[in-house]
Amino acid sequence: MELAAALKDGCSQPARRQNAVALNNGVSMDKKVSWTVSQVLLATNGRFVSGETETAFRAISTDTRTLKPGDLFVALSGDRFDGQHFLEEAVKKGAAGLVVSVIPKKKMPVAVVEVPDTLKALGDLAAYRRRLMGNLLVIAITGSSGKTTVKEMCAVILAQKFAILKTEGNLNNLIGMPLSLLPVENKHDIAILEMGMNRPGEIARMTAIANPDIACIVNVQDAHLAGLDSIEGVARAKGELFERGKSWARFCVNIDDKRVKKLAAERSQKQISFGKNRNADVRATHVRNEGEFGMAFTLHINHKKERIHIRSLGEHNVTNALAAAAMSYAAGADFDTIVKGLEKFEPYDKRLKIEKIAGLRVVNDCYNANPSSMCAALKTVQAMNKGNKAVAVLGDMLELGDSSVKAHRQLGETVAITGFNSLFVVGEFSRKVVEGALDARMTINQARQVNSNDEVIDALVEMVHLGELNEGDWILVKGSRGMRMETVIEGLKKQLEMES
């Protein structure tokens, strides 16, 4: 499909609002985020229990630690917490109202709204807020890896021309995504929302809340298998973004990913393809790895092309850049704006970011890990290394379910095959990683199972003292978020800088 045709009919640049005022029940929504009791009841279909019916709220809060005076506190409950236990604390901190699923036994001196499910109510509030902003263009991004990088790339591009709201950090689940959308105001042109999941139905619910105009599945990989059984289950869960998309939405499709391509083929919405495939609407040619300086490639959109350089490391980030370019173009950004934005983008925290510590080149990729992203990180360091030593410090890949043993053993094999000189592994599956490395011809002196991040730090410092690690050598540190592998980098930096 020609890109120009895909962008026709509703894909034009979002217009800025002129004197935009959303009215509901006689209440104007001005620049400050504001809610009334009547709006909360309308959004959630809740029941007013007590308090003043004319109460107004500054914003929505789910955490008493960050709650501000005048907020409406939504008492969420989960496996490890229950917001109902913090109602009095919320009131003491200045909450003007409470949304609860159980009416408190003690009468509260603020407005109280009862709902059957506070998590659903939070989503309903965000969906209501999104409906009020009739001219807002919403972009939704999901994928097994890279979605935060793509979101940030997209934000840098679009912020040059538009007023944007974006997901902060990784607030991408059924709590975080609504909280990211709730602050939207009339001044915003575009909201860029990240959607993560670990079980079926979550993306469908977030899609219903956000009602996106542009949707992108960056990739489908073997992540979160514990809640989805197989990569086919991952594809079905990610595919909910396309399946539940409105008929006039535009889908940005990675045609290099066979599972994403299949998901898109089942839908009738207008589609903009991206990838290295010659048939892609947004594509990259003449890709060159420039080592620690990033990646260079020729960007093609429609009939325009330009040679560009991005600071992000690894070939997989070229695909991330193409995804961001496709969505930005669909949102109304011109070619030059897209080029400038991609070249301006700085790698996001804990994502293949090089830190210099006592002359060592430490690659911080601690944000998260699955088999595909582990492989990409190992290959990226391999491509950058020009004859120096390379050490891999790896933590468990979590949420892989029954495939955990096989995946970790294969990880060890990949470390050995990609030519790393040493391997330190921590976590429940560390032995399996070492076994895989030994099977692929690493020695017991090269591949070591360790008991803690502190033990890794001590081992690395000892290697420096013995001259086994020297200036210019590489250390890759990566693992799932729950492994907190960044503490290895923090500890190594602290010890080596104290000695210098």
UniProtKB/TrEMBL annotation:
Domain Mur ligase N-terminal catalytic: 59-129
Catalytic activity line of the entry: D-alanyl-D-alanine + UDP-N-acetyl-alpha-D-muramoyl-L-alanyl-gamma-D-glutamyl-meso-2,6-diaminopimelate + ATP = UDP-N-acetyl-alpha-D-muramoyl-L-alanyl-gamma-D-glutamyl-meso-2,6-diaminopimeloyl-D-alanyl-D-alanine + ADP + phosphate + H(+)
GO molecular function, one term: ATP binding
Keywords for this protein: ATP-binding, Cell cycle, Cell division, Cell shape, Cell wall biogenesis/degradation, Cytoplasm, Ligase, Nucleotide-binding, Peptidoglycan synthesis
Pfam families: Mur_ligase, Mur_ligase_C, Mur_ligase_M
Pathway terms, separated by semicolons: Cell wall biogenesis; peptidoglycan biosynthesis
Function: Involved in cell wall formation. Catalyzes the final step in the synthesis of UDP-N-acetylmuramoyl-pentapeptide, the precursor of murein.
Protein name: UDP-N-acetylmuramoyl-tripeptide--D-alanyl-D-alanine ligase
Species assigned in the record: Candidatus Desulfobia pelagia
